[in-house]
Amino acid sequence: MKAFNKLFSLVVASVLVFSLAGCGDKEESKKFSANLNGTEIAITYVYKGDKVLKQSSETKIQFASIGATTKEDAAKTLEPLSAKYKNIAGVEEKLTYTDTYAQENVTIDMEKVDFKALQGISGIN
After folding, report:
1. Which UniProt keywords apply (predicted)?
2. 28, 41 contact by CB (below 8 A)
3. Of the four listed, 21, 44, 67, 118, which is most buried by Cβ atoms within 10 Å?
């Protein structure tokens, strides 16, 4: 659980860093991938010039990495976190399960997101 919170904090912090860099006037995208303690994450930034327009993340969370052995165990841990995103303007979040891992997809529209509400989620600084 702590690894998941740290991972998401890293994602949000990277948005801030990434938004300070870049040049050009056309819309472009850049994808970053990592494997942290059994959790695979791919983050894609869509940007124009030095402004990040959208951040999308695809996270594959192995049940074992959160101490779960079944979908039900994983849901007990992940669903409360997932629910926190449901009413935040500019954020779309979807969580699905297989037999061995959960797949979370999060898209943040930087022009519409309520940053204050997003920061209020535990684990995001």
Report:
1. Signal
2. no
3. 118
pLDDT score recorded for residue 92: 95
Beta strands (DSSP E) in 16-90 are 27-36, 39-48, 51-62
* Tokens 């894609």 belong to residue: 44
| pTM for the full predicted model | 0.75
DSSP 1: -
In tens, the pLDDT along 65-106 reads 999 999 999 999 999 999 999 889 999 999 999 999 999 999
Please name the residue that has the structure tokens 């124009």: 48
Helix/strand/coil percentages in the chain, nearest 5 = 30, 40, 30
3-state secondary structure of 97: strand
- What would the pLDDT profile of 15-40 be if each residue is shown by its tens digit? 545 555 545 589 999 999 999 888 99
CB-based contact 19:51 (threshold 8 Å) = yes
